[in-house]
Design brief:
The protein is mostly helical. It contains 7 helices and no strands.
Length: 196
């Protein structure tokens, strides 16, 4: 039998616990058949926190109909709003939800994925968390996508993959060149900070 590290109890692994063990057990019992992973369970808990912040007393607010109605809920948006409610409080969560609804009305945010990404980026920006940019990280994303595509198309050759990646690189280079030209033609703007 191996020895346990003396620091195992002092330095727990993983992310710090956000929800108490009791609420985690209750959520696991409530969503037992619907959620199979710890992350999925945590997302359900964040969505519940968002619902508590946006709909006190369980009454639906008509102004948040884009986010949630009795018939449809935008789970990813609720999860991100729930993260804000837990970290910054329900007032901040409601303010961000108001901003999401205001941006969705004119069509600036049209999908759940866009809205969740907008909230997440604002939260990470507020916390000064910058995701590292590296060619290795991008290579990992591209390789995962290519391997998934190859699994669906087992008869594809490596030459076909190389041609497709080369064509994608040319499209990106052309788009970047067009963007550079457009930036030169635009008048300079005063940099401003985006609020969440």
């Amino acid at each position: 039998m191996g020895r346990k590290s003396a620091t195992a109890s002092i330095n727990p692994r993983g992310r710090p616990r956000v929800f108490s063990m009791g609420s985690e057990v209750a959520a696991r019992a409530q969503f037992s058949g619907m959620v199979n992973t710890t992350r999925g369970l945590r997302n359900k808990q964040y969505a519940i926190e968002a619902a508590r912040a946006l709909f006190p007393g369980g009454q639906r607010e008509p102004r948040y109909a884009w986010i949630a109605t009795d018939a449809k809920m935008r789970q990813a948006v609720l999860v991100e709003i729930g993260r804000l409610a837990v970290r910054f409080g329900p007032e901040t969560a409601r303010a961000v939800a108001d901003s999401v609804v205001a941006r969705a009305a004119p069509g600036q945010l049209t999908t759940t994925k866009q809205a969740a990404a907008w909230i997440r980026n604002g939260r990470l920006e507020e916390l000064n968390v910058v995701r590292p940019v590296s060619s290795g990280a991008l290579q990992g994303v591209v390789l995962t996508a290519v391997r998934g595509w190859l699994a669906e198309h087992p008869n594809a050759s490596s030459l076909l993959v190389q041609e497709a990646l080369g064509a994608a690189a040319r499209v990106l280079a052309k788009a970047q060149k067009s963007e550079t030209v457009a930036k030169k033609e635009r008048p300079p703007q005063v940099p401003g900070r985006r609020s969440i």
